[in-house]
Amino acid sequence: MSILKKGIVLFCGVLLLVGCATTPSQPPNWINSLYDQAYNDATYICAVGAGSTRDNAVNAAFAALSQTFSTQVESTLTYSGYSSAETLGGGETTFYDSEAMLDQSQLTSRSGPIVGGEVVNTYVDSNGTVWVRVAINRQKTAQIYSKEMDELARQIASIKMSAATAPTQLGRYFTLLEALPMALEHLLYGEQIVLLTGATKKSYLRDLNEELDQIAASVTLALEVSVDVPSGEEETTRKEVLGAFRALLNDFGFKLGEVGTKGVPVVKINYIVTEDENTQGPYSHAHYTLSVAIVDGDKTIGSYQKSQRETAMTPREARTRALRSALNRGVEGFKEALR
What we know:
Layout: H1 3-21, H2 30-33, E1 44-51, H3 54-74, E2 84-87, E3 93-96, H4 107-111, E4 117-124, E5 130-137, H5 138-164, H6 169-177, H7 180-197, H8 205-217, E6 220-228, H9 234-251, E7 255-257, E8 266-275, E9 284-296, E10 299-312, H10 315-337
Parallel strand pairs: 3-10, 6-7, 6-8
Antiparallel strand pairs: 1-5, 2-3, 4-5, 8-9, 9-10
């Protein structure tokens, strides 16, 4: 036999031995105990996953790791929501109706993926099931999160500086609103660092909310409502829309004045409902649009819009459902935009 052939046989024999070594007769302790001398609880956070393939096992392990973060951090967080915002030319801020409630399933997605995780052990049992253990180093991952928090803090500080130079209190309010999503993300990173290392970081969210409350208390707004609905429903609809927005702005601490008063910004609210003329079948459909624009002098500094279709047995019932939706989901969406 040639030396090359002997080398091949020897090499294959080594591979065979290694392959057998990865499937010991007894499962490793880390499958049940998670932590050991190599990966101790003080230095690492570990999770185990199993699957028919290594990829499935890794996915299961990281899902378990994510759940560990969510479960342990969720109890220290308060629920909050806000709409996304986009700053347009001229300083106007447009809000898009959305919800961003904090809960277990959204915690890691709000803060980005859990970084620093790696597969440290793999085991295949007698049934062919693949087991893996993943681990993240507490200190290293916390350092990465700290850098993200520093960048968010820098952005928040920049927004606060811009707000300080706003020509009006209302302009200052809407400028500060842009920092809320960043402050929320900053808080989530901070809570994960608490889980990882026990170290606490400064939070900007509470101070920012308090500052917004103080500004709102110093601002007077006037409400101007217009409606485009079938004849005979105008006055009732207008009163209901006006009442809903009065209550909302009062809750936020804004003072309410009269339209036309010098120096008082106007919240222009427009509600339109139309019947779907392409309706087929026994049902009627009504499509509504609720638009809100906040005008300070000759400048629109914020806007919001909500559109939706409602269905009922008769056209009037569909319009009633549409108005109910606008006064609930639409007004709630505007509320989230103000927070």
